[in-house]
């Protein structure tokens, strides 16, 4: 009984161990499966983490680039604002030297530079290219002179002019401009710089250099663009200054010439006035001197013509009548000369009163009707029924009508027509036209017709008597009334003499 129990116990223990081992294996298998699953999860997490890490690095990199871009953009915007202020300051002057004085050191610093130099090109005595300092910021006078001398001595200006474009220590680190870059760095005491030529319409004008002595200050392409814009603005302003200078000098030269010419014309006018005065005085004196003997001649001729001194033969009487006729013509000539002289010198006082031109025209036409009948000339007046009165000296204006209508009769063939018309103008004047269908006036004579003693010389007019003073007298009378007179004519097509007289208020 005891043995059975022992085997049973051992069997039971073995079974228990087997069950325990089986359970443990099963659990271990489950654990392995869990570990495998967790490893897969871990791999996924690691992969996700790596992706997140890459994305984080990309974000940081992008953020840094954005910050850098933002900084550059802010710097560029700030530079553009400063450049705008500089442009305004430059554009407010047309003096070439003041242009560079407006580029203050504070504005250079606002642009992001520590130092700046500006030079203009000039030819030296030996024909080499030299520099003249126009502006400096951040330098002493001694440093500026050393920089200028070094740049001239190293002969880099030809390379700069050849490139004719902005360059900097960023873009000229290698190649042909490397020597120029090193020279500028050394001469101008700069670690980094931007240089740009200044050009105007006439060609290269100079050079502007801006840079930093500190190695911590970093230049960008935006800085190069700003310096280039400033150089362009300077070039345009210099060109404007030169144009202004040329215009100003031309204006001064024109003023000088005008002043000289005015003095010459004033002197000539004064001389003409003196000559005219002497002429008027001479004409007046001679006319008075001629009147006395002419009066005597007319008087004796009249006495002889009456037969009071004895009977006169017909032949003698005919000649006495000719003396009397020519004496009257000479008297009219002298009177016209005296009138012109008096009106010209202002010694004739015009008695200006409101008068009707309609009445004056009718009176003169009636007076000259016998002459018109002799040549069968028809005269027509075309005046408005209601014509305002003119402010005139009646006696003088009657002489105007007599001269113009008499000329129309004299220089028209038989059967011609004369028309006298008038109208009111918009500028408070009355325009009068005396038109005829006579011989007309050649174009070459129209500009001289109102000159004293001038007569149209044609085959037709040679046989017509006249002194050449009538139209001159008419012109003086009209102008003394503040009016104007002119003529329109064509040879063999008649003439129209027109004049204006002021309307009475």
Describe this structure in words.
With 505 residues, the chain is α+β, with helices and mostly antiparallel strands. Among the domains are: 96-242, 2-Layer Sandwich (Beta-Lactamase); 353-502, Heat Shock Protein 90 (2-Layer Sandwich), CATH 3.30.565. The chain is 59% helix and 16% strand. It contains 11 helices and 12 strands. It has helices at 2-91, 96-101, 105-110, 141-153, 157-163, 178-188, 221-306, 314-345, 357-374, 394-410, 470-480, and strands at residues 115-123, 129-137, 167-168, 192-200, 203-212, 353-355, 378-382, 390-392, 417-424, 429-436, 485-489, 495-502. A 5-stranded antiparallel sheet has the order 2-1-5-4-3, with helices on both faces. Strands 7-9-10-12-11 form a 5-stranded mixed sheet. A two-stranded antiparallel sheet has the order 6-8. Strand 11 and strand 12 form a beta hairpin. Helix 4 runs antiparallel to helix 6 (178-188), helix 7 runs antiparallel to helix 8 and helix 8 (314-345) packs parallel to helix 11 (470-480). It is elongated, with a radius of gyration of 56 Å. The N and C termini lie far apart (173 Å). The mean pLDDT is 81.
């Amino acid at each position: 009984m005891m043995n059975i129990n022992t085997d049973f116990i051992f069997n039971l223990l073995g079974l228990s161990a087997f069950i325990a081992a089986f359970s443990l294996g099963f659990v271990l298998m489950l654990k392995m499966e869990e570990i495998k699953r967790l490893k897969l999860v871990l791999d996924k997490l690691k992969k996700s983490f790596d992706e997140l890490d890459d994305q984080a690095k990309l974000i940081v990199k992008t953020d840094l680039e954005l910050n850098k871009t933002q900084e550059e953009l802010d710097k560029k915007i700030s530079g553009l604002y400063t450049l705008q202020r500089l442009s305004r300051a430059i554009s407010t002057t047309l003096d070439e030297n003041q242009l560079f004085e407006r580029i203050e050191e504070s504005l250079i610093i606002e642009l992001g530079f520590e130092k700046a130099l500006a030079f203009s090109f000039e030819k030296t005595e030996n024909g080499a290219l030299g520099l003249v300092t126009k502006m400096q910021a951040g330098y002493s006078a001694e440093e500026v002179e050393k920089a200028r001398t070094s740049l001239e001595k190293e002969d880099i200006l030809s390379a700069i002019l050849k490139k004719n474009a902005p360059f900097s220590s960023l873009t000229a680190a290698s190649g042909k401009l490397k020597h120029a870059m090193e020279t500028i760095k050394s001469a101008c005491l700069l670690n980094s710089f931007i240089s740009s030529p200044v050009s105007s319409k006439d060609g290269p004008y100079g050079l502007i250099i801006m840079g930093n002595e500190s190695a911590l200050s970093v230049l960008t392409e935006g800085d190069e663009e700003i310096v280039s814009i400033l150089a362009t603005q300077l070039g345009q302003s210099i060109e404007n200054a030169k144009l202004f200078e040329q215009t100003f000098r031309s204006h001064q030269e024109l003023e000088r010439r005008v002043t000289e010419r005015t003095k010459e014309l004033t002197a000539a006018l004064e001389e003409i006035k003196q000559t005219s005065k002497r002429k008027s005085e001479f004409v007046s004196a001679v006319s008075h001197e001629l009147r006395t003997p002419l009066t005597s001649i007319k008087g004796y001729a009249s006495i002889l013509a009456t037969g009071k001194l004895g009977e006169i033969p017909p032949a003698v009487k005919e000649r006495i009548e000719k003396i009397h006729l020519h004496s009257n013509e000479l008297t009219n000539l002298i009177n016209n000369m005296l009138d012109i002289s008096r009106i010209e010198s202002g010694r004739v006082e015009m008695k200006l009163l409101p008068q009707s031109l309609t009445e004056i025209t009718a009176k003169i036409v009636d007076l000259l009707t016998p002459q018109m009948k002799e040549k069968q000339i028809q005269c027509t007046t075309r005046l408005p029924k209601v014509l305002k009165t003119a402010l005139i000296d009646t006696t003088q204006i009657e002489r105007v009508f007599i001269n113009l209508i008499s000329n129309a009769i004299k220089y028209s063939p038989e059967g011609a027509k004369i028309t006298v018309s008038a109208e009111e103008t918009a500028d408070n004047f009355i325009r009068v036209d005396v038109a005829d269908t006579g011989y007309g006036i050649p174009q070459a004579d129209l500009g001289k017709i109102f000159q004293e003693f001038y007569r149209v010389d044609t085959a037709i007019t040679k046989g017509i008597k006249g002194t050449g003073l009538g139209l001159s007298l008419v012109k003086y009378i009209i102008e003394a009334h503040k009016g104007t007179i002119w003529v329109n004519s064509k040879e063999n097509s008649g003439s129209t003499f027109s004049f204006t007289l002021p309307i009475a208020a």
